[in-house]
Amino acid sequence: MAMRARQKIRAPRKGLASSKGDDFEANWQALSGSLKRIHTKDASDLSFEQLYRNAYNIIVTMRGHDLYERVKQLEREWLATEVRSSVDAAISPSLLFAQDALDIQDQANERRAAGERFLAVLRETWEDHQLSMGMITDVLMYMDRVVVADHRKPSIYVASMALFRDIVLRSPVRPDTKTTVADVLESTVLFLVQLERSGQIIERPLIRHCIYMLEGLYETITEEESSKLYLTSFEPAFLEASKTFYQKEGQRLVESADAATFCKVAMERITEEKERCASTLSTLSEPKIKEVLDNELIKRNIAEVVNLEGTGVRNMLDQDRLDILRSVYVLSSRVDNKKTPLTAVVQKCIVDMGQEINTLATAPAPAPETTDKKAVKEKEKPMNQQTMSAIKWVDDILALKKKFDAIWVDSFMSDQVMQSAITTSFSDFINSNPRSSEHLSLFFDENLKKGIKGKTDSEVDSLLDNGITLLRYIKDKDLFEAYYKKHLSRRLLMKRSASMDAERQMISKMKMEVGNQFTQRLESMFKDMTISEDLTSSYKDHIRKSASHDGKPVDLEINVLTSTMWPMEIMSNTRDEVQLSCVFPREVESVKQSFEQFYLSKHSGRKLSWQASMGTADIRATFQRSNGKTARHELNVSTYAMVILLLFNDVAPGESLTFAEIQSRTRIPDHDLIRNLQSLAVAPKTRVLKKDPMSREVKPTDRFFFNNDFQSPFTKVRIGVVSGSANKVENNDQRKETEKKMNEERGASIEAAVVRIMKQRKTLVHSKLMSEVLGQLSSRFVPDVNMIKRRIESLIDREYLERVGEDPPTYGYIA
Amino acid sequence: MDSTPGSSEYVTLVSGDGFEFIVPRSTACVSGTIRRMLDPSSRFSEAVTGRCVLENMSGLVLEKVCEYLCYNLKNKNQTNVPDMEIPPELCLELLMAADYLDT
Amino acid sequence: MADRRQTRNQIRGPQSALTDFLASNNISAAQISEDYQRRVREAERTAVADQATNSTEQNDPEGTSESPEQRKKRKRKETAALAKIKQSKEFARRKSRRTGEPGDDDDSMARDILSEQSRPMPGQLENCEICSKRFTVTPYSKTGPNGGLLCAKCSKDQANDDKKPKVKKAGPRIGRRQNQSNLLDGNAQQGASTLVESCIRKVADNINDIEEFGDLPSSLLHRLSQILSKRRALTPRTLNLFLRRELRSIDIYDTAKLETDDFQKIFTFMPDLNNVNLRFASQLKDRVLDYTMDRELKIEHLQIDSANLVSDTCWQRLLVKLGPDLKTLKLSNLDTSFNDETVGVMSRCCPGLRRLKLKQCWKMGDGSLQALGLLPSLEHLSLDFIQETDVEKLLDTIGQVGPRLRTLSLEGFPTADDRILEGIHNHCQHLTKLRFTSNSNCTDRIFSKLFTDWSNPALEFVDLSSTRDVDNANADGPADAIGLASQGFVALMNHSGRALQKLNISSCRHISREAFEEAFADDRVYPKLRELDVSFHTIMDDYLIGRIFRCCPSLTKLIAFACFNVQEARVPVGVALIGGLKAQDRIVVEGDQP
């Protein structure tokens, strides 16, 4: 650098301009003329560079600020004269004065035509202004760079947009009125929207472009998002108008239309408004108009619509109108997370339908339907009608459940709130039937005995699952357990189960659903059955080895049951009174004794008690026909019947035994004896005995003869015991009995729970104790509060607990 | 970028004393001023003809400007780019031109 | 060494501001240099032993071992060959092609040509450089990494290798020093700097050869003044270039070299002055300002720094005279004048004052604070007091002017406490810029309260640096954090994050890592934040820095001095990360920023 000749650097040659005052005017003259030509779209032969240079020269001579003001002035004049006059010309009187002329067709058409003309002009004006200002801003970019930065002014573009806002939109249309162009624009757009809402086609893009204008203009020079004219002026008016419209529409629909129509219209309005925001107005408004719709159209009316007489939700449920239900659901969920009116009516509906099923089940059932023919054909004893209605009850509920499951999935979109509402209602009406547990157990019983025959595994599975679903609703699980146990024991002992696999499957399903504790006893019943099988076979081995048998051995198949696990009370009808056990015939008695010996040698200290009422026997009977022939039949009879029949071995042909004689010789309990005699002598197809007199009733004086004329097409004849062996609905006495048992058991459970809790806590306030007890037991049953109180009293009496405080009442544990 | 129909790939920059420089459009558009001048949507004569007359610039200066436009484009994504060589006697004039062209 | 120092002391070059400063603080540049040299020598001594073994190999460009005699002989031959080449046409052609590229000394180029010539011709036999196999040279034989030829197979492999790393031909680069200088200025942009910038620098380089600026637009003059001031090149002579009648504004950022008459010249030459900005105006005297008043100048914006020869009475006369027009007044570093009385005159005479900045004026005290409250149009207020002031007075002032303020900058109020921030929360609703620094009274709780439910819209500029507890005995600070800490920081980012452009929280050392993680969580975006200063945050590390880059798409400058855990942060393109440990090699060009 230092080496270079010190040649002075010249200042740049001045451009065309020299810095004299009149250059400003010259440059401005050229510039302003051109700017006007840009506005009149006559710019194609203008040179950008020339205009730019004009502006540059002005600014370089420090007159930039003046230039800025001049341009603004020029724009102001242009807008106030040319632009305003063309816009004003497009405003016809009908736009100014017509107010809500929608009802009068002619006026509406006129106003619409005028409105669209006006919008078209406004749109063109705006787009021209934008375009020209874009060009002008480009040309004046040097000014924006220098002047705007120096003087902290808005860019000329922003400034000119503000001018447009004030001069074109915000000044009165006529000198004599306060109405501005913006007002006319607003009312016109609202009017057109109104037209579209009433079903007419309007020119959407036109409106959209005018809305663009409102979105492109701001209240403030800093152009914050929130100060868009669209948001500050048009949108509030639009929302207000929409509010009024939907208030009216909602009222009209509720008064005149049915629920389905309302839903249809509402759904349509929702999509319509959304589309309007997207294509006609601004997406900014979408959430807001949605709120208006929700509040004014839906929230106000939904409860009424849901409950509309004849067409409301109840009707839809009855008619399975899933599509409309879905609309109702969608509408409801928009405005209310809990969907209160909808859930209320759905719940009411379920409870009503459920009660109907309940009454149907308790009322005497109508004659078995045709579908039961098969059962009749198979010569099964027609089911007890009550049992049938119990099963029908379960089936009906399952059908109802299926219906609502479908509705829940299809119409309620698997909504959690709806699900819990539906569940509650099902639970309510199912538990309102006091016999629900018994019915359900019977359902299982029936299906495990016969229903699952010929079904595939998966069908069985779903059948059982259905039952389990109902079990879920049942509150008194202990009651169900009692019934199930009873029914299961019969199935096991009588070998009535169609499939042991299905039985076990059932147990494991229950275990999953209700828990380990619940199925413990049921499982041990199965265990007893298995052990007994082994026992039987090892006993057979024992007999074979001991070889001390004389002649015909009696095959013994034995089930040794743990008395605490099995429902003993229903097997022996002893009802607590001490009764001597049945006298077995010699042969049988010796087998019995031999087994007892065998068993006790294996398990000393145990006590076997024989339940003759539960057993069966296969005996071979020889009938001496009067024609000298003999007929042989193998009879499958109950143990008691076997005992009775064996008596006749010692009775000479033609001789008879009286009821009293039989009774004294066998010591079979009256009740069982009567039933067995009925099945042997009264039942038409199994009359192995003849009875005198021949009547249905069995009286102590009746006489019984061996019936040598017994006829049967089969060699093997199964003689069931008249009632008693099949599981069926209990009669009222039995029921009371079961309830009593249940209450005792519950009492014990409650006491156990109370003691358990108190042992842990030592002292506890009454209310706290109550809630803990309820909590512990609720999985099994819902304890009666009074019962808990009584049990606590009783525990106090027995000095397990003591009262340690009165306010609040508090108990202490006595160790 | 500016490939709207009718706008060719090259544009002509003309100095005040009549020197013409034909440069790729993208190169010319490094200058903010020229970019707007040529903007097809602006409808000014420059955009129509693809010819920009820069009245207040000598051929000497405009040549240097063109050199810079290329230099800028070439080093677009480089870091630590040194300044282009500028003859001292030209620096003031070039400064004004650069300011004028928003470069 | 000693005589070199001697020489230095005799011939003094131009003194830089830094040298002046160091000298006044008894720091000797020579001493530092000597210490450095000593350390280097020590390092060399220890390194010599290690170097000795491998130095021969390193010095041998061909990598072959030859005896000194052989080498000497070869060297002589080579030199002769090189000299011959340098006169050849080929050499001239290449040289002209390669000018402008660095490291193009004639020798290396000539050597290149030499090595090319000494290659075997096609048809000859040669040993492959890589596999040492003997093969026939063809015109297509490739050159190996060390200049030898390759056999066909190795050529192919080499070609494949070449394809993979298509190294972009790096253009000329500027030196590391300039690069670091740019980086410290926060300039990490890509591509060439604008022609305007380049030219301005060139003009500044040649300022002494320039006769006049001609029609240079004032914005360029302004920029030139900045650069010349930075280079301390603004002399009475250069000043003349800036004095132009038609200009309405003058900004000289360094007037330290101007004489009193030069100041007067400014006002003589420029009758339309509206904006005056003179820094380091140590020679500005009463008589210049009196002259100005006589000239009936319509000054609206006045900024003067370090004018310590101007008396209070003169200031008062000036304020009375200019008062009705004055819109901006910025005074700083006044040690001997501008007392409370003068401030009183100001608040009476300047009803139109919108911007006021008074920094480091020693005479100002409580009285001044009180007077400021009376200014009716104030929108921007920046104060930096030397004297200790009454918190109540400051509170009153905020109460009076707060509602109109857009800028509030409070420095040098060490006594300010929670009441002040509460006052700001209650009175200010239009702030876009807030500075409140160097304070150890205000609690984190009150910072958090300030930014919670504040009717003021989101702030754009925030500087709360050095608000923290300073107790050497308790580095972690009290349990109830003092200064902007975790709570306050999160509240600040919640309140202003979306609008923030510039944020300085350096030395707010009680902001926890959790707070940073919360403020820079995945879902947070600060779209406008350009500059962020997190210096002296010891918890800052590469991870947090990465989070910051992710949440601030517009960031161009991140200052992180003394963030010792920031070691290998990946810096996106176009962002300057300043400070940190390894200041060099910082820019990581990351196209695919995660």
Automatic annotation (TrEMBL), chain A:
Keyword DNA damage included in the entry's annotation: no
GO cellular component: cullin-RING ubiquitin ligase complex
Alphabetical keyword list: Isopeptide bond, Ligase, Ubl conjugation
Top-level taxonomy: Eukaryota, Fungi, Dikarya, Ascomycota, Pezizomycotina
Cullin family profile domain residues: 435-681
Database matches in InterPro entries: Cullin, Cullin-like_AB, Cullin_CS, Cullin_homology, Cullin_homology_sf, Cullin_N, Cullin_neddylation_domain, Cullin_repeat-like_dom_sf
Keyword Ubl conjugation: yes
Name assigned to this protein: Putative SCF ubiquitin ligase subunit CulC
Family assignment from sequence similarity: Belongs to the cullin family.
PANTHER family named in the record: CULLIN (PTHR11932)
Spans annotated as Disordered: 1-21
Extent of Basic residues compositional bias: 1-13
One Pfam family this sequence matches: Cullin_AB
GO function term, MF aspect, one: ubiquitin protein ligase binding
Any one Gene Ontology BP term: ubiquitin-dependent protein catabolic process
From TrEMBL, chain B:
GO annotation, cellular component aspect: nucleus
Record-linked InterPro entries: ELC1 (IPR039948), SKP1-like (IPR001232), SKP1/BTB/POZ_sf (IPR011333), Skp1_comp_POZ (IPR016073)
GO biological process, one term: ubiquitin-dependent protein catabolic process
Keywords: Nucleus
Gene3D superfamilies: Potassium Channel Kv1.1, Chain A
Subcellular location field: Nucleus
Domain SKP1 component POZ positions: 10-72
Keyword Nucleus listed: yes
Assembly and binders: Component of the SCF (SKP1-CUL1-F-box protein) E3 ubiquitin ligase complexes.
Family as reported in the entry's similarity comment: Belongs to the SKP1 family.
Physiological role: Essential component of the SCF (SKP1-CUL1-F-box protein) E3 ubiquitin ligase complexes, which mediate the ubiquitination and subsequent proteasomal degradation of target proteins. Controls sulfur metabolite repression, probably by mediating the inactivation or degradation of the metR transcription factor.
Name of the featured protein: E3 ubiquitin ligase complex SCF subunit sconC
Species annotation: Aspergillus taichungensis
UniProtKB/TrEMBL annotation, chain C:
GO CC terms: SCF ubiquitin ligase complex
DNA repair protein rhp7 treble clef domain: residues covered: 122-159
Pfam families assigned: zf_Tbcl_Rhp7
Positions with biased composition (Basic residues): 165-176
Domain of life (superkingdom): Eukaryota
GO process terms (BP): SCF-dependent proteasomal ubiquitin-dependent protein catabolic process
SUPFAM superfamilies: RNI-like
Region annotation (Disordered) ranges: 32-110, 157-188
InterPro entries, sorted: LRR_dom_sf (IPR032675), Znf_Tbcl_Rhp7 (IPR056451)
Stretches with biased composition (Basic and acidic residues): 35-47, 87-101
Biased composition (Polar residues): 51-67, 177-188
Transmembrane spans: none
Protein name: RNI-like protein
Protein species of origin: Aspergillus taichungensis
